[in-house]
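Q&A log
Question type: sequence-to-structure
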Amino acid sequence: MAQSTTKRYCIVGAGAGGLSCARHAADTGAHVTVFEQTASVGGTWVYTDETGHDRYGLPVHSSMYRNLRTNIPKQTMGYWDSELVSDRTYPGQQEVLSWLEGYAEQHRLSRWIKFEHQVIRIVPLFGEGASRRWEVIVRDLRENRCETLQFDFVMVCNGHYSCPKVPEYPGRDAFVGIQIHSHDYRCADRFEDQDVLLVGAGYSASDIAIATAKVARSLTVSHHDPNKVNFGNLPTLVTKPTISKLTPTGVEFVDGTTVNCSVIIYCTGYRFTYPFLSVDCGITVEDNHVTPLYKHVININHPSMALIGVPFYCCPTQMMDLQARFCIQYFTGSRSLPSRSEMLADTEADLKERKRRGLPKKWMHKLVDDMQFKYYEDLARTAGIVPLEATVEKMFTECMRRRMLDVQNYRDDEFEVVGED
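Response status: OK
Response body:
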């Protein structure tokens, strides 16, 4: 029998990135299979009271906490042609999830999704460059049996908010209180009348600090730049510099001061992890730097594989949809990728610029300052696809400015788009 010319796509994950990839791949007439480890679409936007491990013994994927609202305006979320509709500029978790569920229903994506299927291993097979094929081993969690399949393209959309990164402070094992990562935080109620130390000052740290300050006996926020965020009028909150060591009943900071606490919440970020990629896939991760990726998305060693959603400090859904459309241009042959040496040179130029700006290795994918929207423009221009709306950059920039001024109340702002720019 003649071999089918229909291309086969393996998509790992049915979160915001996976749904966009599935839709755009399916629109080309390809055969699409999405492997989703949980029982529903939405990825990190699915709330669960579960922490630790699920009923299959796998780590709980979601980091979603109760009453979460987006930290960027709804107009900077959504996809290129799918608007996130809400009565509020900063919608809640359930509104975002409902939008993703509606998107999946609109494009009939469930027919492509294998729920409760864990990707065990992805291995490159025969072929060269963008024509290489892939062997994918998956486990049906409900039936507890494995299956081996082959695909032409792989799009990895497993996210990077599921593998917590916890600093190894001296004395950490001696501390007798509770230590958790924000990945396992669900609500502040359990910390009522506790002395809480929160490590970090990012998005989740700010939310958790505001919620915890209302119920805790005391709240201390430790960060290398304690003036990074203005928490406003939180009378129980004290800011401190970096921790030097833990004691059985508290911590000592680098300035020599100490504080007693009964709870430590680490809001210290996450690690990029791709445990299902074989060594032969040619992807390495060192100090959260994923290499080698052309435009932070296409595997240079095997360019029929893409890792979606690696850059951070961004408009994530907009970016992942842009990346999906970028990759499809090359996977379908509508555009031809540069040579391997040209892709490596492009990547090296980006790294040199980041190093020139003094960014550490762990921030080689962080879209700081003007980098974010230059990156989006570069993707759109290089692949010849529709760029993001001009208002996205302006709204994101103003949102971040307002957040720095008043992290407690910036979500009360209402934005309105009144023209193209």
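Response note: The CA atoms of residues 61 and 291 lie 24 Å apart.
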